[in-house]
Known about the structure:
Layout: H1 5-9, H2 20-53, H3 59-87, H4 99-127
Amino acid sequence: MRPGAEDESLSDEIKREDGLERYWFFYNGEWAETIFGLLAAAGAVLLCFLYVLGYGETIAGYIIGGLAVLGFVGWYFVFKTLQRYESSGWLKEQKASTSAEKWKIAIAAGLWIFIFLFFGTIILIHNR
């Protein structure tokens, strides 16, 4: 072990090598949460305003409503991800893949392949 290696492991600094998602959320998460929240709120207010004017069921109303929903969904996922990282203290997740997990993945993949082949064969035979 080289000198100073234990200092690097105890460092609170978040680096890109630790994971791009974690790094991005650490530096930009609150900004993204604010932007998505503002998009959702502004879209909802504007949609209500359009409904009062009688233009709520136009193409513009549907687009603004869709943007409001997308803003809310984006805000929710950013909020949940930030909450998860903050509750763990921004520590890297230690995922140890065990042989049991590998077997579960292999069995699940095999079952999906079986399902697709079985039903695909039935559909192909039925269409011919």
